[in-house]
Amino acid sequence: MSNARQKVQVIAEIGCNHKGDLDIAKEMIRVAAHVCKADVAKFQKRYNRELLPPDQYDAPHPVPENSYGPTYGAHREFLEFDTEQHRELIAECRANGIAYSTSVWDLTSAKEMAALEPPLLKIPSATNQHYGLQEYLCAHYGGEIHVSTGMSTRAEIEGVVKFYEERGRAKDVVIYACTSGYPVAFEDVCLFEIGRMMEAFGERVKGIGFSGHHLGIAADIAALAIGRMKEAEGHGRFSHIERHFTLDRTWKGTDHAASLEPDGFRRLCRDVANVDLSLAGKREEILPVEAVQRAKLKWRG
After folding, report:
1. How far apart are CA 86 and CA 261, in angstroms?
2. In terms of Cα–Cα distance, which of 71, 57, 76 is closest to 15?
3. For residue 100, which phi and psi values (nearest 5 degrees)?
4. Which residues 6+ apart lie within 8 Å of 162 measured at CB?
């Protein structure tokens, strides 16, 4: 890999897979950092009364076996950490040499998390049209702003990029190719969207990433190859791969089935790093490793 080419960052999306337990969340940080060698541990922050209308807040969870409360609102509150707990997560990340991040789903959460000054904040696919939230971050948060584009039209994605361009923040933005589903069938992963987005936006934003909700790790390596090829063609930078992370895929919750357990995430980080080394053209016609074999084996007729 060229010395000028920046490392693709691998994000362990812990989200709510900690089951509302701060000790489990901290253990997941340590495992992501030391066992898996991930670059970022990412959580989620919601102010549920702001995010959910009363009828949805008070309704039963649509999948009762995954619920942590008698209503959907109670379920969401059970899984939520407050600002001081997020401070503890930031400290745990710092102590273990991994970057902290969180998705912010509403304006109150954006204000609370921006005040903690993490290196990056994420706008989930569900709220990438919430421009009041993003306006606040543009004005009050100096870090990277990452935006997922699942369940979004091409016009909506173009609108997001233009929004940041108009505010002089596009070069702080990473846009993710994403299909929203848990899990996503392989025929719906649509990896060529990475290439399309790099051609359309790669030179307009800081980076293009891939957020996957599929099974296994093969598609992530293909995503890396597509992204690096488009990067080599001059279409910006392929910068991040994000996957959901859990300690046990059998745990109760919506996201565990689309998550990688520690050994799978370790293999993902290993393969991304190793395959990335191979994504290059030959530096010279006969490589040094070949020269030795050429001297011994090449037919000279």
Report:
1. 23
2. 76
3. -100, 145
4. none
Report how far residue 164's alpha carbon sits from residue 138's, in angstroms, rounded to the nearest whole number: 8
Alpha carbon of 101 to those of 90, 143, 188, 270, 290: distances in Å?
Answer: 8, 11, 27, 21, 44
Mean pLDDT of 242-270: 94
H/E element, 266: helix 262-278
Measured distance CA(220)–CA(297) in Å, rounded: 37
Please report, as a single letter, which amino acid is at residue 167. Answer: R
- The CA distance from 74 to 68, in Å, is 7
Mean pLDDT of the chain: 96
Phi and psi dihedrals of 223, rounded to 5?
-60, -45
**What are 269's two structure tokens?**
């980080």
Is the pLDDT at 155 greater than 80, yes or no?
Answer: yes
Q: Beta partners for 36?
A: none
